Amino acid sequence: MSSKVLTLILVTWFFAFTAHAQVSFGLRAGVNLQNISGKNLNGADLEYDITTGFHVGLNAEIHLASDFYIQPGILYSSKGAKGEDYITGKEVKWDLSYIELPVNLLYKPSVGLGKLLLGFGPYVAYAAGGSVKRKDAKDGEIEYKNDITISQNTAGALSGTYYMKRLDVGGNMLIGYEFAKKISVQLNAQLGITDINSRIKDYANDETTFKNTCFGISVGYRF
């Protein structure tokens, strides 16, 4: 089955399901504290620093039963990290922009005048852009490729071109509170499980891995 047919089936199923379910919609925006964890070319742990970003988007809450909901969403989210480049030794800051599709199972029991928010679930994200800033050197760029050569990797680091994969997949967790007037505040945690670093196909000993990690706080409003 082609991806287009599968997408059409899923979209049709979603609208057919929501037409008969209790659904509400909301806005969400907030601040990200983001980093990239993993290993460098020789397998040593990355020691990158946290950077600040943001997220903004829409979500829906589909009532399942009692206090349980499914919460799909679409977000624009900035991620990245800063640290010393393994090849050049220069300080580099990576800024990555993603279109993100989270789907959370949400538990919303009544607590006080509002509702407690507890949720978890997967996300899929697609890199929409990115940039690189280097200390004591010209700014660079990010190119999205699944596979590169060792010469591309070395030349890229020297010239300021870094290679990443577009697709990121991981998991979410959230805890928060929705007030009586439908305004909510929540803490978010996110851990990527896919390696977003381009694979060096002609270097068998490449141990590089890059995985997005993120913590944040959001403010939301439900219609």
Description:
The chain has a single domain (23-222), classed as Porin (Beta Barrel). The chain is built from 2 helices and 13 strands; from the N terminus they run αββββββββαβββββ. The strands form 2 sheets. Strands 1-2-3-4-6-10-11-13 form an 8-stranded antiparallel beta barrel. The chain has a two-stranded parallel ribbon with strand order 8-12. The protein starts with a helix and ends with a strand. 27% of the residues are buried. The mean pLDDT is 88. The radius of gyration is 20 Å and the shape is elongated. The protein has helices at 3-19, 150-159, and strands at residues 23-39, 51-65, 68-84, 91-107, 110-111, 114-134, 140-144, 147-148, 161-164, 167-178, 183-192, 199-200, 209-222. The chain is mainly beta and 223 residues long.
Characteristic key phrases:
223 residues, two-stranded parallel ribbon, Porin, 12% helix, 2 helices, mainly beta, elongated
Topology:
Blueprint: H1 3-19, E1 23-39, E2 51-65, E3 68-84, E4 91-107, E5 110-111, E6 114-134, E7 140-144, E8 147-148, H2 150-159, E9 161-164, E10 167-178, E11 183-192, E12 199-200, E13 209-222
Parallel strand pairs: 7-9, 8-12
Antiparallel strand pairs: 1-2, 1-13, 2-3, 3-4, 4-6, 5-6, 6-7, 6-10, 10-11, 11-13
